[in-house]
Write a structure and sequence with these properties.
Largest sheet: none
Shape: globular
CATH topology of the largest domain: Tetracycline Repressor, domain 2
Oligomer: single chain
CATH superfamily of the largest domain: Tetracycline Repressor, domain 2
Distance between the termini: 57 Å
Helix content: over 70%
Strand content: under 5%
């Protein structure tokens, strides 16, 4: 058996898959709140409604859960950038990417905070992906954006810093959710993402329109 996980998804029973999902969901809660260092297998087991030996049956350490969780989520996290289409209207394609990233912050705040924590710790577990698959995808989309700039279809912009800016302005609403809610106050609780969407749409549309 792997030193990372006791079981792999392929060939497992329905009950085993359900328990793995329960462990992942519980671990996502704990890791996004306490980080890897602050989390314990006991906490994860309690949150998952399982015994600690039951969790250890599937994963031999909290590090194994953390690594597998990151790997499982990484493709989901990168996919919105992959969806930018060369054949689409440039401004509309970039604004649609902003919408997708903001929606992920609204719908997947725990996942966003998990990645933010990993980045703060210098990404020791996924640095190879950042320098490999993610860099290759950013290079590909940056080349597309640079082509749109050369053709005069969008205003001049540094493509990579544009992508970084979109990450920062959208993920902020998940990673700094407490700060956002504290500053906006309870009276705007239900509309902060709609307001953010409208603001970011205006911001990037004005920036990018030739």
């Amino acid at each position: 058996m792997s030193s990372r996980t006791r079981l792999k998804p392929g060939g497992t029973t329905r009950i085993q898959r359900e328990k793995r999902r329960a462990i992942f969901d519980a671990a996502l809660d704990i890791f996004s709140e306490a980080g890897l260092r602050g989390a314990t297998l006991d906490q994860i087991a309690t949150r998952a409604g399982l015994s600690k030996p039951n969790v250890v049956y599937y994963f031999d350490s909290k590090e194994a859960i953390y690594r597998d969780l990151l790997e499982a989520l990484l493709g989901i996290w990168i996919d919105p950038l992959r969806q930018i289409r060369a054949e689409g209207d440039p401004v509309a394609e970039i604004i649609a990417y902003v919408h997708r990233k903001l929606a992920m912050s609204q719908e997947m705040p725990r996942e966003s905070r998990l990645f933010a924590t990993e980045m703060i710790q210098n990404a020791p577990r996924i640095s190879d992906v950042l320098q490999g698959d993610l860099k290759a995808l950013v290079d590909e989309k940056a080349a597309l954006i640079e082509g749109w700039v050369r053709d005069g279809r969008i205003a001049p912009v540094d493509a990579r810093h544009l992508i970084f800016s979109i990450w920062a302005t959208t993920q902020h609403y998940a990673d700094f959710d407490v700060q956002v809610r504290g500053v906006l106050g309870p009276e705007r609780e239900g509309q902060r993402f709609a307001e953010a969407d409208a603001f970011l749409t205006t911001l990037y549309t004005r920036m990018l329109t030739p």
